Amino acid sequence: RAEDPQKMLNQLVADMQNQLVEAKKQVAISIADLKRLEKQRDEQVELTQEWERKAMLAVRAGDDNLAREALKRKAEHEAHAAEFIKQTQLQKEAVDKLKDQLRNLNDKIEEAKRKKNILIARQKRAEAQKAIQETLQGLSDTSAFDTFERMAQKVDQIEAESEAAVDLSNELTGDTLQQKFKALEASSTVGTDAALTELKIKMGLAPVPEAKALPSQAAQNESQASTASQPNTENRNG
After folding, report:
1. HEC profile for the chain?
2. Are residues 15 and 116 in contact, defined by beta-carbon separation less than 8 angstroms?
3. How confident is the model at residue 61 (pLDDT cuts 50, 70, 90)?
């Protein structure tokens, strides 16, 4: 079974996150140990100083034996303080190192997250391209296109047959003579009518139309008619 890169990457990042949580816990424990050592160091240093003060007090009192006992106790606490100072320094160095490792681990996880998103985007793009190529490869088979073309031709044939059936129905129904004259009237034009009239005139079967007066002659005739219609002013004056 093929692995799903997206699921694998998500799982890897989740594992890294869990490791980061555990690492933080370990660093926190180390820091707590450091604080405990620092506290014990400070306590031993304080006891060292206290027994030194007691030894001085015994010397002032003239009790050298008591002063010696106080100095012995001081030496014990001083040795303990020195050991705690050493352990505290070592623990501090370890904590600083762990903190650096924790920061590096966190940076690597953040980088892994960014790479994961990029890889997932690349995966999705590759899957989309693959699907497109498979679709195009399927369409490259000419049988689909041939079938499409055949269906188009079939639709054209059906339309032609339908139109032929309508024409035939019109021819076989109604008054055939009337349909012929309607067809004749539909095919005639104004130009055809004029040619027919001219032919009849030529054959003497139609009267010659009167010639229309020219515009200048029509204006002259109108002027003469107007003059004739005016009353004779000389006769009025007489």
Report:
1. CCCCHHHHHHHHHHHHHHHHHHHHHHHHHHHHHHHHHHHHHHHHHHHHHHHHHHHHHHHHCCCHHHHHHHHHHHHHHHHHHHHHHHHHHHHHHHHHHHHHHHHHHHHHHHHHHHHHHHHHHHHHHHHHHHHHHHHHHHHCCHHHHHHHHHHHHHHHHHHHHHHHHHHHHHHHCCCHHHHHHHHHHHHCCHHHHHHHHHHHHHCCCCCCCCCCCCHHHHHHHHHHHHHHHCCCHHHHHC
2. no
3. very high
- Cβ-contact 95, 38 below 8 angstroms: no
Instruction: List, for residues 99-141, the tens digit of each pLDDT value.
Output: 999 999 999 999 998 998 888 898 889 889 888 888 777 666 5
Extract the tokens encoding 143. Answer: 């049988």
Average pLDDT (157-180) is 73
- CB contact at 8 A, 197 and 205: no
pLDDT > 60? residue 225: no
Prediction pTM value:
0.49
The pLDDT-based confidence of 198 (bands split at 50, 70, 90) is confident
Cα(144)–Cα(208) distance, rounded to whole angstroms? Answer: 72
For 176-200, b/e burial (b = at least 16 CB within 10 A) is eeeeeeeeeeeeeeeeeeeeeeeee
